[in-house]
Write a structure and sequence with these properties.
Elements (H helix, E strand, L loop, with lengths): L23 H12 L6 E3 H8 L3 H14 L2 E3 L3 E4 L5 H9 L1 H17 L3 E7 L2 E8 L14 E3 L4 H8 L3 H10 L13 H14 L2 E4 L6 E10 L3 E11 H5 L4 H26 L1
Antiparallel strand pairs: 1-3, 2-3, 4-5, 4-9, 5-6, 7-8, 8-9
Helix pairs in contact: 1-2, 2-3, 5-10, 6-8
Amino acid sequence: MTDPAAETAPTPSSAPQASDQYVQSLARGLAVIRAFDTDHPVMTLTEVAGRTDLTRATARRFLHTLVELGYVRTDGKTFALTAQVLQLGYAYLSSLSLPQLAQPHLEELSLRLGESTSAAVLDGQDIAYIARVTTRRIMTIGITVGTRFPAYATSMGRVLLAALPPAKLQEYLAGADIKPLTPRAVGTKKELVAVLDTVRAQGWCLLDQELELGLMSIAAPVHHGPEKVVAAINVSLQAQSVASKPDPKAYLDMVRAATVETARLVSADLSAKH
C-alpha cells in the first residue's frame, strides 16, 4: 500500500539535495511547521499546502500527525502551532549560554533607559531573537524569543552582517531579496553595502524607521574573543519620543554609549565563561 506521505509533490527550492542520508518525510514535516510564522499564525489546509509546495493530501497527513503529537491544534477548518513546538528548540537554547548571559545585562539596560532591549543571532537570511526585555509594545508585530526579521532591515542584522567575512557577506547578498519595508528604507544591495561599511567602521548601527515607521533602534555587536561576532544587542526606541527630547542627538548618543557598553559586558562574560 502506498504511503500518502510519499506522494509526488514539488520540492521546496530551499530543501537540501536528496542523498542516501536524506529523509524526505522528516524534511516535509519540518517544512509544515516552518510554514507558520508571524504573518501566517493560523492557516487552512489549502494555505499550508501552498506555502510548503505539498499536495493537499500530503499536507493533511503531516498536519494531522502533528496534531496527534501535540505540536499543532485544529478546529476542524484551520490549523495553528501549539506552545509544545517550543520544545523542538529547547535543547539548542538551553545549551547556548549566550541568552542566559545576556538576559541580566538586557534587564539592567532596559531599566536604565526605560526602553525595550533584545539580543539576536544571524540565522541564514534572518536574525532570530534569543533574549528580550519588553517595556511596552512599540511595533505592530509583537516580538518574542524566536521572532525572526530579515537581517538587512534591522539594526542587529546589520551589525551581524557587517561582521561577516567578505566571502560570507557576498554569499548573503547573492541570496538576499532587498525590499524596502518603509519609504525611509534602504532599497538596493549597493545601498546596503554602503551602510554596512559605515556600521563596520563605527562599531554600531542606528536604524531610523526602516523596519517600521515610528520605530528606531540602536545595536552593537557581542564578541566571543577579540574578533568573532556571535550576536548583537539593541535598544528599541519610539521616533516620536526621541524627537520630543530637549536634545535628540544627545539622547541618541547616550543610548548608543549605553548599548555599546552593555554589549562589551556581555562579550566579557561570554569570553570569561569559555
